[in-house]
Amino acid sequence: MRKKVRGEAKEKARPNYKKECLDLWSLCVRVEQRKCQFMGCNKDVGLTAHHIRSVTHGATMLDTDNGLCVCWGHHRLQKLKSEWFQDQVIDVIGNEKYERLKKKSFQIFKWNQKDLKMMVFVLKNKLKSLQYD
Known about the structure:
The protein is built from 6 helices and 2 strands; from the N terminus they run H-H-E-E-H-H-H-H. The protein is mainly α. Helix 3 crosses helix 4.
């Protein structure tokens, strides 16, 4: 049996708002765009949401404008041909939007539990409004 580390039980009891937010963010991006936006693919199955600016950037992590709906096949190309993939993303969203997201992503921002809990509410409401459009 594993020895309990001090404070471990408390940590496990805390809701994982970050994961819930990222799941809701992904769902919002996919519902809003509804099909693969990559290179005129237009598939509407096997979709995933791609962060245009990395999820590691707190300022753009939960911004749905920072998302692009792509099919699994195209999302896979991000790992295989990362620079080419990024160029294609910029072609899809336009250089102006990319530069705006890039600038925003460099802002220092760290999410706390209270902010993340609020974003769960915001993203759920956004999802509801997208589903009724």
